[in-house]
Each structure stands twice: as structure tokens, then as C-alpha cells.
Amino acid sequence: MLSPGVRKPLSRTVRFGVLGTYPPAQCGMATFTSALTGALSAQGSEVSIVRVADGSSTSDDTVIGELLNGSPQSSAACVEMLNQSQVAVIQHEDGLYGGAHGDELLAILGALQVPSIVIAHGVSKNPAPHQRWVLERMAATSDRMVVMSEAARERLCGEYGVDRKKVAMIPRGATLPTQPRLKRSSRPTILTCGLLGPGKGIERVIDALPSLLNVPGRPCYHVVGRTHPEVLASQGESYRMGLVERARSNGVADSVSFDDRYFTTAALTALMQTAAVIVLPYDSKDQVTSGVLVDAVASGRPVVATAFPHAVELLRDGAGIVVPHDDPEALSSALRRVLTQPRLAGSMAAEARQLAPAMAWPVVADAYVTLAAGVRRERQMRG
């Protein structure tokens, strides 16, 4: 029996209630939610999911309900379901929730009786006034904010004025390779993965490819990923077809291939290992979190990326080469160096393998359990 005034120690396993997108939704957050759920469950915690409704259905018994944006009744039911957990984990990115800049989420956060952790999948550098206010209110209302890069933490604390004690940095998480590397193709492969749509910068690589055809082995460019559902709904496959035409007009149609199949995480990890170099040629100069970047580094392959904040941070010690957004020659030169200098490519891959263990999902899940235990303890201490 505990002495008077001595609180019972908290368990290392936690009942999590998670709000966000979830498969069969096809987006980076849904993939993240699924992977984190699996890692937490493997660690011994219990996870229940409240999906943001997207018109699809699921028979996954981890899903206990849905949030229908724009419905006060659905928001109230969401709060009730999350309050059955010990810690609520709320995933956020602009545009996910109802209201102006997702401000319907604030009512849900404010009504929670259990500790809450908000995972910020993005932190805009130049937010609209109301967008800024929403993020600031989330930080004030939640017990802790989680970001996935130091760049995001600096932005949240510096530009939004959020108390540093309220912000935790936990890497995004990745599936580390467990199988021997598959045999590479006879032609060196430059690989880009992820949902396809304007802003991914695929054009940059297609435009650089003619200058690389004299590299031994004649490298090919492989673009893997379905068209983003929102792009598909509004534009169909016009963006992909435009890229195919661009490759044809550049005279590299036989060196560019597109694969719109769905790849499991394990299959995508194996595919990344076959690449000579993984390239992230994104247009964004604002992106503080990239799941594809984390997966690329975790695969142990050299990376070339444009200078978005997460890439600058993660590749700074040599796991990749960062190039300016508007410098085609720099991109071409970086790809050529990796493809023609085996020692450089080897050192980049070795550095990536050094970084990878800290990104493994079991490590990330343990960090969330530790954080959850901490916020529960703080609530307990406040009585």
C-alpha cells in the first residue's frame, strides 16, 4: 500500500486515442498514423483511431469512429471517444479540419478531459493572421506540441512565440531495411518517390537528364507514386501526362519511367535500396517535415535534394547534397558527382546508415510513450 501523499507510478504502456487521417486514405499523414499505431501496439500500448472522414470506409478494428468536419454533433462524439483514452494525440496540418484554417479543431481540443499532444505535420513560415492564431491557440490549449525537425521547432518557438518547454522534437519515423539489397538494374537509377502533383519538382530532373546521358551506364529516372487524390480529382492525370510529354520533348523518353502502383512500406523500402541516388527536387522552400526524405535516408542511399528546411537539416552531415532551388546546373552537377564518384556515394550512404537507427519506428514509438507518461505525470501533479 502506498503511503499517504505518494502517487502510484504511471505505467510505461499507455492507452492512446489518435485523431487524424488513416488508411485507406492515401496521404503522408495516413501512412504516418498507420506506422505509429503499429509501433505503439508492438511496444504494448493500446491505440484507438478516430479517422477524419474522407468518404472511404474501413473494417480495421483499431478505428473506433470518424470525425465529420462541419458537424458539431460529430465533434462532440469525437471528444467523447478521445476521452476514453489516457492521452489524446491530435494530428494537425492546415486544411485537414473544418472551419477557417481548421479552427473547428480548437473546440475539440478545449473539450478534452485527458492530456493532449498535438503533432504539427507542418508549420507555415508566412501564415495568414487567422492561420497563425489557430496554431497559437492549439499550442496554448494542448499539453504538448510535437514537431519532426529542429527547423520546425525553431519556427514554432521563434516565429510563433510558443514556449520551448511545450514543444518536443520527435523524428518522423521510418522502416529500416531488413532484407538484403535487391539486385540493381544495369542502368543506374535516379529515383523519386511519393504522391505526384505540381510542386514536386519532377520537371527539374527531367530537364537535367539530357546532360547526364553521357554518364557511364546511361542513368534512368524512375518516378514512383500515384497522383495525389486531390490533384486527381481536380486535374485528372494531366500533370503526369505533361511530364511524359516533357521527357519526350527533351529526348529522354526512353530514360524516364513512371510507376503509379501502390507500394507497401516494405516494398518501397526495398525499392529505395536499388537506387543509385534518391532525389527530392521539391519546389517548396518552406517544408519542415518530409516523410519521403526520412524514408530515403533510412534506406541508406545517397540523397540529392533542393534546399527545403528539413533537407538542409537532415543532410548537413553528409548523407546527401543540397542544391539551390533555381540552379539547374547545381542539380545536374550533384547527380553527376554521386553517379560517377563511388567513394562519395559510399560515404553518403554510410552517413545515412549512421542516422537511420534514431528514425526507427520502435525508437520513435518509445519517445511518444515517454512524452505521454510525462504529460500524464504533469496532470497528476497538478491534481
SSE arrangement:
Blueprint: E1 15-20, H1 28-43, E2 46-52, E3 63-67, H2 72-82, E4 87-92, H3 104-111, E5 116-120, H4 129-141, E6 144-147, H5 150-158, E7 167-169, E8 189-193, H6 202-208, E9 220-224, H7 229-235, H8 238-249, E10 256-259, H9 265-273, E11 277-280, H10 291-298, E12 303-306, H11 309-314, E13 320-323, H12 328-340, H13 342-355, H14 361-382
- The count of domains is 2
The chain-level structural class is alpha/beta
CATH architecture assignment of the largest domain:
3-Layer(aba) Sandwich
Q: Regarding CATH, which class of the largest domain?
A: Alpha Beta
The fourth-level CATH homologous superfamily of the largest domain is Glycogen Phosphorylase B
Structural description of this entry:
- InterPro entries: Glyco_trans_4-like_N.
- It comes from Mycolicibacterium iranicum (Mycobacterium iranicum).
- It holds the Pfam family Glyco_transf_4.
- One of its GO terms (molecular function) is glycosyltransferase activity.
- This is Glycosyl transferase family 1.
- This protein has 2 domains: 178 residues, Glycogen Phosphorylase B (Rossmann fold); 171 residues, Rossmann fold (3-Layer(aba) Sandwich), CATH 3.40.50.
- The protein starts with 14 loop residues before the first strand and ends with a helix.
- The chain contains 14 helices and 13 strands.
- Helix 1 crosses helix 14, helix 3 packs parallel to helix 4 and helix 6 crosses helix 12.
- It is globular, with a radius of gyration of 22 Å.
- The chain is of the alpha/beta class and 383 residues long.
- Helix content is 40%, strand content 16%.
- Strands 3-2-1-4-5-6-7 form a 7-stranded parallel sheet, with helices on both faces.
